[in-house]
Amino acid sequence: MTAVDPVSASSGGASIHSVDNTLGTPKQTMDADLFMKLLVTQLQNQDPSSPMDTNQMISQTTQLSMMQSLATLNSTNTDSFALSMRTNAATLIGQQVSYIDKNGVTATGKATSVSFSGSIPTVTVGGVDVSLDSISAINLAN
């Protein structure tokens, strides 16, 4: 008797084990393509005397739709947060700001420019590049 691994078993030449073609390694997340392959394989291999419950199939399709919507929402939130950080950093130009330097000492200076090259904007304060998340105060009195 030969044991069959259900994860890598294939039917009709269509493997249900998903592989990321760019790296040749198995995917760690379930995407829409993998879900559809699993659903088709499930339908092809169902017992004709006991077909798959249509309510279960609709439920699975709904779950896929919800997963895709959540992924889109997450991406939108990430983009919105990045835009908010850039906007906030740009408003600091010309302002007196305080920040914590590398030695843990609070320093103050005028913000003269902003760089968006990294994931967190960098503000130039008194000639020193300071990460936006290191700025601790905005001093409105110039």
TrEMBL record:
It holds the Pfam family FlgD. The keyword Nucleus does not apply. Residues 8-23 have a biased composition (Polar residues). The keyword Cytoplasm does not apply. GO terms for biological process: bacterial-type flagellum organization. Residues 1-23 are annotated as: Disordered. Keywords: Bacterial flagellum biogenesis, Cell projection, Cilium, Flagellum. Belongs to the FlgD family. This is Flagellar hook capping protein.
